[in-house]
Amino acid sequence: MKAQDENSLSRQTRASSLAKESKSDFLALVGDMNNEKYPIYMTGPLLYTLCTAVIDLDEKILTIIEGNPKEKQESYVFSLS
């Protein structure tokens, strides 16, 4: 049996309501802070999102984003080829 808590359920419900058609949509989803109590992108005080990894199989690039991914500030970009 899976343990489900209010935090996870709230974040899952929010994620299911957002668009997921493009890379920008996904970055906006993982950077979403719409819910004050249970945001998808967490900034504390107990839980933090440290970074976001984006693996683009078409471009063969791994991108690490520090900070909110909605701002698209790439910190590191690695070639996968």
Automatic annotation (TrEMBL):
<protein>
    <submittedName>
        <fullName>Uncharacterized protein</fullName>
    </submittedName>
</protein>
<feature type="compositionally biased region" description="Polar residues">
    <location>
        <begin position="1"/>
        <end position="16"/>
    </location>
</feature>
<dbReference type="InterPro" id="IPR047801">
    <property type="entry name" value="Peptidase_C45"/>
</dbReference>
<feature type="region of interest" description="Disordered">
    <location>
        <begin position="1"/>
        <end position="21"/>
    </location>
</feature>
